[in-house]
Amino acid sequence: MSKNYELSRPLPPNVQRAAAILRFAGNIGFWIQLVLGVLAAALLFLSIAGLITQQKASQGTGFSIFCSTAGVLCLVISILICFRYKKIADLMQSGNVEQRPKKTTTIQTVRLGLSSNLIGIFFSIIGAEGFIGILWSKFSNIPQGAAVYDTSKLPTPNEILLLLANTHTILCHFAGIVVSLWLLDRLNHINRQV
Fold it and tell me: Where exactly are the transmembrane stretches of this chain (predicted)?
């Protein structure tokens, strides 16, 4: 009888606050990254499809595309982790002490989300730098005041679209980093109050 009472006792206030904060951060991080991430992935897909149809790709484009794709894949992981925050909040509020996740597990999950965003923003910045180098190379080879007859020396819209996809991915990862840091701060603040 005492075991059933132990499983159904009311939640401590710090667990209720932690669950509410996890749910809020999970919702914000999930939706911001999902909406902006779908846009970034669509731009990346369209630009890659356009580059495939071109006759000749610029030198260095392959590595930049790899970095951009890695940034989007890290974003997918971050979105899934934000969804996991909401599931952890549900487990905390279930009232079952045995199912409640440990503090260390919750903090590790938040740190994993932060790491995913940091790795993703690193890849996205490297990809963007590569595309900026390609664009600079093309623009610097155009003579000043001369008419351009060889259009292969001009930047293509697909290369500019790849740069735009990278900047959207960087914005998504930045939002994820802000959410993770805020969440770590709030959870540590709750732990200090106990």
Answer: 21-51, 63-83, 112-136, 160-184
Q: Rounded CA gap, 162 and 134, in Å?
A: 11
Domain extent, residue 86, equals 12-142+163-193
Question: Can you give 145-181 as a three-state secondary structure string?
Answer: CCCCCCHHHCCCHHHHHHHHHHHHHHHHHHHHHHHHH
Instruction: Tell me the per-residue pLDDT of 58-71, one tens digit each, with 9 for 90 and over.
Output: 676 788 889 999 99
Distance of CA 70 to CAs 14, 16, 37, 77, 108, Å? 38, 37, 13, 11, 22
How many structural domains comprise the chain?
A: 1
Residue corresponding to tokens 């890659």: 48
Residue 157 lies in a domain: no
Q: What confidence tens digit (pLDDT) does each residue in 103-112 have?
A: 888 899 999 9
82 is a domain residue? yes
Residue 73 in domain: yes
Q: Is residue 19 part of a domain?
A: yes
Radius of gyration of the chain from its Cα atoms, rounded to whole angstroms: 23
Round to whole Å and give the CA distance between 85 and 21: 9
Whole-prediction pTM value? 0.83
Render pLDDT for 108-159 as a digit per residue (tens, 0 to 9): 999 999 999 999 999 999 999 988 888 888 777 777 766 656 666 677 778 8
